[in-house]
Amino acid sequence: MSHSWTVPASSALRARALGPIASFDPESTPGFDGDKDSGTELLAERGRALADLQELLYANGRSGDHRSVLLVLQGMDTAGKGGIVRHVGGLVDPQGLSIKGFGKPTPEELQHDFLWRIRKALPPAGRIGIFDRSHYEDVLPVRVHNLVPRSEWEKRYAIINQFESELVASGTTVIKCCLVVSKDEQKKRLAERLDRPDKYWKYNPGDIDERAHWDDYLEAYQAIFDLTDHDAAPWYVIPANRKWFSRLAVCELLIDALSGLELDWPKADFDVESEKKRLAAAG
Ligand code: AMP
Ligand code: MG
User: Fold this and answer.
1) Which member of 35, 67, 87, 186 has the greatest number of CB atoms within 10 A?
2) Where is the Polyphosphate kinase-2-related domain (predicted)?
């Protein structure tokens, strides 16, 4: 492999290491010196590493280990969250995944605190959970449109930090990825949705109205990175104009998270030698 990461993805993409989100370049490929072909080739190779690690996590979960991994995906409409679920999630055994998308809260969900639906969807032991949107929506559209009073959403950053630190303490490795598309690229992707009958289902007329609030969303994302990026539950900012790069980057970050668990194959809870003898003697 001639092209590779020159800086580990976990350093090159960490929110804390970057400047303001408003001047972030969604075309860039931080830490990676290859092009689309080499990136796509590397993704296939790294996908096998990810699949092996996922199997280890699953095997340990089956053997009583309580740990899990949670990948939180955020990003503006068309940023490619669904593509990450399909193309990175698709690299591993689907039985090991726990995928949940969060849309506008239902009337029932609105009767509870904003973390209620999140807690119900957390990954079980041994699984990789993927959230397509998350509790961060409660400080994104909710903040931009004051869907609850400012005094209410302002408190949520601290509540989220507390929630995530408890989650981490209970054995869930949390990584948070924000996919960043440029406003122009979003326009192109929305136009494509309108041009292709097989993409109408993804189109939502409200997405155009949200574009009018682009800068407010950037400000809301900046507040998230400033207030909720911690070593225990880090934020990564992923340029997403090039889909091959965002997929490669998220795959690499997941590998990094799983490797950090230092998992080994679970020991047999039976005597291997005597089981071999029993099997040999069995009819
Ligand atoms: P999609 O991900 O394209 O299916 O769209 C889901 C929509 O639900 C997006 O417009 C989100 O901003 C919106 N949404 C998700 N969670 C919340 C929330 N807690 N409050 C308000 N809107 C939300
Ligand atoms: Mg949408």
Assistant:
1) 186
2) 35-259
